[in-house]
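quick one before i forget lol
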Amino acid sequence: MEATAPTAGAGANGSVAAAARAQVGPPTNPMATALLTDQYQFSMAYAYWKAGKHADRAVFDLYFRKNPFGGEFTVFAGLEECIRFIANFKFTEDEISFLKSVMPMCEDAFFDYLREVDCSDVEVYSIAEGSVVFPKVPLMRVEGPVAVVQLLETPFVNLINYASLVTTNAARHRHVAGKSKVLMEFGLRRAQGPDGAISASKYCFMGGFDATSNVLAGHLFGIPLRGTHSHAYVSSYMNLSEIPDRTLRNKDGSGICKDFVTLVQQWLHKIQVVDSLSSVFGDTNQSELAAFASYALAFPSNFLALVDTYDVMRSGIPNFCAVALALYDLGYKASGIRLDSGDLAYLSIEARKVFHAIEKEFNIPGFGKMIITASNDLNEETIDALNKQGHEVDAFGIGTYLVTCYSQAALGCVFKLVEINSRPRIKLSEDVAKVSIPCKKRCFRLYGKEGYPLVDIMIRESEPSPKAGERILCRHPFLESKRAYVVPQHVEELLQCYWPGSSNKPRAELPSLENIRSRCMQQLEKLRPDHIRRLNPTPYKVSVSGKLYEFIHYLWLNEAPVGELQ
């Protein structure tokens, strides 16, 4: 990770923040403004200000409590949008006027204070976007004036929650599909509104998908676009006479085919009388043939047909093959077919048999390797089932279940105060899972001899860093008997400074989307296979140092009221 050294005079309040603001740009969604927060954040900000506590130096941790989708890993995403948000955090006069109208009980001087608020004195430390992360470990640590940081809670949780959830969902689909398959995100029409759709396209790509159907996402983020045609296009044709211009120039420009449709018909007749295919192919739907021929005339170098409008094996496949062979005569190579209904495993296998038979019969090199794409409400479970059945699908187009995260609505990120004015704070609960881990912490990932991560450990900021080759005691934060010594072969510090505020600390650069995607894939490859398997995955260990363990329980006892029995 590269770091940007502070410019001269970085100690002056806001100078580094101003430089960073110019570099990171505005939020992707223009609705991500300073008003994008819950009402109670402004109520607390006023109460802090009224009590003279608004400038108290606070430290908050953003983390989650449980991995999603019944798995044992999560992919962290949304960091760049958080940095863009705070880089541009400022109230406009219109927003101040609105706040006055809904908070008439507040003094005018409070709104004067809000006019001057920005994030020039806020510091953000974060795990790198695209990293595999685990419960309880802070994804981000946010430091700054308590009133300001409190205003950041809701937007930060909002920007991280769905981003990490859908990236994890995408990564799980990538894992079950395997490295060799092409994955395309087709969720725009089913996503929760425009912002949900744009976010899904971005973060599915980050999680390992190869392309999207979302044109705006392609424009905004440089994600490769994929798309062919729908059933409506096929059924819009009635017959071959609807194709007015039937000419098509050879790919090398050496000549022109004056009647491409006739050439297609000739090829259809040839494959219908071939002995090896005569039992498969009979009469086909001529309106479908017209649609395919017309589409090929428009896109001769990228012809991929949806073959299930009428009947896949009796009509769609022979019609496609006739058009593909006609294109081959003119020097073009068809891309393949898409299956959007039916028994995808069976149909893909049968289609592949036909492609191989045509390659052999007519000596067409590569025809048997024609790309077969499958769609139709696919999800992680159906892809796993297809793998177990056996299939010939090369690419999957996945929409609804992917972008809506159908099997889990939210990740459940939380934003908890862990220190104020250098005094550690703890949030207690009868549910141990909801007890927070107090104080400003540093977080490390410890790797074993085989290169796999063994455990994440949190330590107090004042403690020395763990070192490779040196034994360290790792303890469960709350269960006394769960502890182990670890001798790491490699140690990785997880939290880096991405927003230095008014400090002199170097700022880690925000990488490109492509680099974040690569990091995500590399991180998943580093995990032990049993941590990421679909069924009964092994939980990854998250621990605290011996000193932090003792401090947690000391503070717990001090803060918990002692009951009295009558």
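fyi The longest helix spans residues 146-177.
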